Amino acid sequence: MSAIGLNANTYRVTGKYLDLLNDFIVKAKVHPDKLNAQKEHIVDFLSKINDESSIDPQFQLLSSIIDRELRCNHEQINTFMTGLIDLIKSNDFIKSIPKIEFLVDTLDNENSEALAKIKGE
Amino acid sequence: MTNYINGAIRESIERAKMLISKIPGAKDLGLYFSPLARAATTDIQNIINSLDYLYNDVDYSDASNLRQKFFKFKKLSGNLAEIENVVIAAMSRITPDDEFVNKLVYEICSEISYPLPSPVASCLSQKYYHIYAEYGLLCIPLLESDFVLHIPDVYHELGHPLIELDNPKVEPFKKSLGQFNAIVRKHFDDEIKRRNLNKSVPGEFDPLLVYKSTWLEHWSIEIFCDLFATYTLGPAYAWSNIHMCAKMSWDTYRLPTFQKISHPPNEARMKAIILGLNIIGCKSDAEAIQKKWDEFKHIVGQRKGPDFSIAVPEKLLKDAADLCLIGTRNIGSEIYNVTNQNKVNLLLNNSWKAFWKDPEAFADGEAEMFRNFKASF
Questions:
Q1: Inside any domain, residue B280
Q2: Rounded distance, CA B93 to CA B377, Å?
Q3: Are A60 and B178 within 8 A, CB to CB?
Q4: Backbone φ, ψ for residue B321 (5° rounding)
């Protein structure tokens, strides 16, 4: 009974969107006026995470991981995501970047933990 | 630390190049490991390109983005470590038994009309059966190429790529899992709301939250892989699962407390498997398996805790069994039936029948039977 199949899945799914989030933070800090394409992309990603009717197992997994982490801070995923999407749409990057960094930290922690288990640590 | 990160990136590029040079050549790779070598080379080359881009990218080099540069470096280093620890390690430990297990896995994939390419099988797993879906690498413990009773676990591992990979051929299976997860989420959300109305202490920890995330992140995947194995192989998978529990895991009713656990309790897995067998018409096998499973639980002294049916509602297992069958059919995989004459399927189901006919005598004939089977490839 090995959990490697599960950890490999978590590793891949959590890693898949880290670049999208990181690249957005980098651009938002340096070129906040040149973010139109990335904005659309990230809003689409966040909307999928927040979609309660989603039947995509990858987004269900990501949503559950983020929901679990937000609960530790006594926050609701729906309120968090809706608020973040509004901030991005209104170009309020000073307030949105820390929230995106929270998502990066959450997914990165899960990603690193899964990799450590794959490597047998 | 700006200098540090640039130096670390340059060093990783050299490590990645060195890793490419460690990939064995055609003679050492043999017939089966070449696709793995090609995939690893391409992936390492992509990592080198990404590291190079990160080193030179002006935006990532801005002082305000140093943390993001560290993040990206860590992720790329992780990808490199995965290839080094998983793929290169498997290619460096090729054994004579690999030829047989690769033929066996290919035969299984052909028999069940597996929709994806047959994975490469490596015979030196130190962690029971497991699969790396992204690389199509199936790891099998060394002794399994000489014994038959645990081979059914290959069918479970074949279920993981159907969930993990982005491939249109497996979308129907993923859709079934997604529909099941939606049912799981609604079930626990409704229960949590109901409990919140009756809570005496607001903010009190509710284990239902842990059950919900454990199902969504791990258990539903494992249950679907169990059911995929049951539907494509038949009763031998259930017997093999009891065999695995007897050797490795007596925690029949184990539930997560504050943190999620990877595998569903064995009772949940066996219930799902038995439900699956009943659905595909293997009622007498299901009854026999249920009887032996109950005996096993009695012998090892496992008792159901009060929360078990809250964490593992029978209705969810039934929904999983129904939806996984739809998913398995919709990807075109063959569903087991008693008239099945496929070579590996017959071997595994007949071996378990022979085992139960006379368990103590089985080991005497197993080696010869398996030798004849190997010779038939």
A1: yes
A2: 23
A3: yes
A4: -60, -45
Does residue B115 lie within any of the structural domains?
yes
Residue B150 lies in a domain: no
Residue B368 lies in domain:
156-375
The residue whose two tokens read 């017939």 is: B31
Nearest to B126 by CA among A31, A4, A95: A4
Same domain, B189 and B264: yes
Same domain, B222 and B126: no
CB of B216 within 8 Å of a chain A CB? The answer is yes
Tokens in use for A28?
A: 């938002």
Nearest to B209 among A6, A71, A111 (CB): A71
Distance CA B212, CA B163 (A): 19
Same structural domain, B78 and B130: no
Q: Note the pLDDT tens digit of each residue in B287-336.
A: 999 999 999 999 998 888 889 999 999 999 999 999 999 999 999 999 99
Test the A interface: residue of B262, B269, B326 with most A CBs within 10 Å: B262
Q: Is residue B305 part of a domain?
A: yes
Q: Does B59 touch chain A (CB under 8 A)?
A: yes
Residues B185, A71: C-beta atoms closer than 8 Å: no
Q: What is the pLDDT of residues A73-91, one digit of tens each?
A: 889 999 999 999 999 999 9
Q: How many domains does chain B have?
A: 3
Q: From the list B62, B164, B209, which residue is nearest A30 (CB)?
A: B62
Span of A29-43, B70-84, B161-175 with lowest mean pLDDT: A29-43
Residue B306 carries which side chain, given as an amino acid letter?
Answer: P
Judgement on whether residues B251 and B196 belong to the same structural domain of the protein: yes
